[in-house]
Design goal:
alpha/beta; TIM Barrel; Elongation Factor Tu (Ef-tu), domain 3; 23% helix; 28% strand; globular
Length: 638
């Protein structure tokens, strides 16, 4: 029995509408973007008008636009949040990516809700619950391995979304409060101060220094290029690229890279299909290592294995060029096999282990003339290229075309000709014209001209898949007649496609209401308003604590919970060293300390769950900074 194919979605980030449009042009099936407020990236805000502009472009290819609406809301923000939800819907958005369950207790438009990574979906039970309360798509925790993904897929009916590329938060998403504790800037409110990227000194329980001024909470970047087939087979249907702060070049490059990989798999796996229309061609070769990354890791998809930290620098070092062989007054020479270019950006680690960058004005073979000679560049220093000028120039130009294949069929009518255009999705349009039927004096030439003029689709969203001539004999059809027929038919097809686009239907909550897997919720549930509290009460939770941002009396608690473990990184994991006896006896998970300036941060280890807890408490002077103010947005109700 023939079954419908399962659709796969490539989901790309958009800092703004222009980047989102290019993401679509480079093959994204869906794009996620922030609105004017309430997105978990406060510096990536966009107007409702820009979201509408992006949606109009995306829908031409039946691609979708998701609005990141994933902060937690204070009570005095609920009405503004509701109004924005309606505005996003009216602008053409296809889904809202949310964290705050209070939204599910409000009068929302008929739009899909996707559970943000901030909802911390680490278990099958949590995934099942979110599926049952009406989420159409859920973003699985980046730390989830393949075996758990399979179990989630077997237990749920919603779409599963998984990050396949880009920066990694060291903490389980939604479980990081260190920024709020230290500065009043809450990650769950879109204002993360990125304390995970700072340098720290690490001390063991005896006060001995294990590492000095290293970025010990900074992760490598995620890259699941080699695991796409396994993720598909495990049940993932949406493949997400991180990066709502990233630039145009990064989004173009990463989107094209994963588009090509997924298309290759789709060719081999006929039981799956793309979730939008059109095929892409590129004027460059996608190479994700050419744009921002901190080197890469597969993270925990196959369980704990390689170390995942980017301890040397949180910056983009780039590809290794080679070692310095000579240092002159205004130049240096490098032993390299790479072709370097004028305008390249290069960098190296100085004597303080800090990454120093410089721009190369002129390249003469292996001799580089920088804009300014660094003081401590020495022989045998390893040099990296973090900006390939020639490659970036390609990405600065129009670099992709996305076309929907169509079949064109010319037919005779009683008083002229008709052109039927059918696209790869089955949408059809027909145009007719009145024209004299003049036998072709040179049939081969006439047919060639007819096909050539029919195929002139370069300025449209379409490309020619095939041309069929359903005519009784070779006719001479003037180019002006063919061009008019083609333009009319294509215009009609665009309208048919626009009329045929349907936004995905929202999910429906189960009745009676699903019961939450736990009856008690701590501050880790991020409950910040009365609507969220009512939601959990309705679903059987009996004891509910307020969000960390609303709780001043918690004292020292975990302000970051992470699967990254510094005991593991420094070969001090009790599980790995079980039974090994050293000078200090059997290794145990004793606390460690991170030191940054005057800050001393305790690390505790939950070996049963294989987690590291970064401990902390709210600094009293920042409490006033953390208090939310009444929202002053100009919104309207439908």
């Amino acid at each position: 029995m023939q079954t419908n194919p399962r659709h796969l979605e490539l989901l790309a980030p958009a800092r703004n509408a222009d980047i989102g449009i290019e993401a679509v042009n480079h093959g994204a099936d869906a794009v996620y973007i922030g609105g004017p407020a309430f997105g978990a990236r406060a510096k990536a805000e966009n107007s409702v008008a820009d979201i509408a502009r992006l949606a109009a472009h995306a829908h031409r290819y039946h691609a979708r636009v998701f609005v990141a609406f994933n902060t937690i809301f204070h009570d005095n923000e609920l009405e503004a949040a509701r109004d924005f939800a309606w505005q996003f819907y009216e602008a053409g958005a296809d889904a809202l990516i949310v964290q705050d369950m209070g939204l599910l207790e409000m009068d929302l438009p008929p739009i899909q809700l996707h559970a943000s990574t901030q909802t911390d979906i680490r278990t099958v039970e949590k995934a099942v619950f979110l599926d049952q309360v009406g989420f159409s798509q859920i973003v699985l925790a980046r730390e989830m391995d393949l075996a758990t993904i399979r179990k989630v897929a077997e237990a749920t009916s919603c779409h599963l979304e998984y990050f396949v590329h880009g920066a990694l938060c060291v903490a389980f998403s939604g479980q990081c409060y260190i920024s709020h504790a230290h500065s009043g800037r809450s990650a769950n409110r879109g204002e993360c101060a990125q304390e995970c990227r700072l340098p720290y000194t690490l001390e063991d329980s005896q006060g001995r220094m294990l590492a000095k001024d290293k970025h010990l909470l900074s992760m490598k970047d995620n890259d699941q290029s080699a695991n796409l087939r396994a993720l598909i087979e495990a049940g993932v249907s949406s493949f997400k690229i991180e990066g709502r702060y990233k630039d145009m070049a990064y989004v173009k490059n990463a989107t094209a890279h994963y588009r090509q990989l997924l298309d290759g798999l789709l060719d081999e796996m006929p039981e799956y299909a793309r979730s939008s229309s059109g095929l892409c061609t590129y004027s460059f070769t996608p190479q994700p290592d050419k744009t921002f990354n901190r080197s890469t890791t597969e993270y925990f998809i196959h369980g704990r294995g390689e170390d995942v930290g980017a301890f040397d620098t949180p910056k983009f070092a780039g590809e290794e060029i080679g070692k310095v062989t000579r240092v002159g007054q205004d130049h240096f020479e490098v032993d390299t096999t790479l072709e370097l270019h004028n305008g390249d950006g290069v960098c190296f680690f100085d004597v303080h282990k800090e990454l120093v960058g410089l721009r190369v004005n002129t390249v003469q073979g292996k001799r580089l003339y920088p804009n300014e000679m660094p003081a401590d560049l020495r022989r045998n220093t390893t040099v990296y290229r973090n900006r390939d000028h020639a490659y970036m120039r390609q990405l600065e130009k129009p670099s992709a075309e996305r076309r929907i294949p169509v079949a064109l069929t010319v037919k005779e009518t009683n008083d002229g000709f008709a052109l039927v255009v059918t696209d790869a999705d089955g949408f059809t349009a027909e145009a007719q014209c009145i024209a004299d039927k003049l036998p072709a004096q040179n049939p081969e030439k006439a047919e060639a001209a007819l096909r050539e003029n029919l195929g002139k689709l370069g300025g449209t969203d379409f490309s020619v898949k095939e041309i069929n001539l359903d005519i009784g004999q070779p006719w001479f059809v003037p180019a002006s007649v063919v061009n008019a027929l083609r333009r009319d038919a294509v215009s009609q097809l665009q309208q048919v496609r626009a009329n045929g686009y349907r936004r995905p239907a929202p999910g429906m909550p189960a009745e009676p209401p699903a019961i939450y897997p736990e009856d008690t919720l701590s501050y880790l549930a991020n409950i910040y308003n009365r609507k969220a509290r009512a939601f959990y009460e309705k679903h059987g939770v009996q004891a509910i604590a307020s969000a960390y941002e609303a709780n001043e009396e918690l004292g020292e608690v975990p302000v970051m919970i992470t699967k990254h473990c510094l005991r593991y990184s420094f070969a001090m994991c009790p599980k790995e060293a079980k039974g090994v006896i050293g000078v200090q006896g059997t290794i145990t998970a004793e606390p460690m300390t991170l030191v940054n300036g005057k800050d001393r941060i305790t690390l505790k280890f939950d070996c049963k769950r294989c987690e590291m807890h970064v401990m902390g408490k709210i600094r009293k002077p920042v409490l006033q900074m953390a208090q939310p103010q009444p929202v002053q947005f100009h919104t309207r109700r439908p």
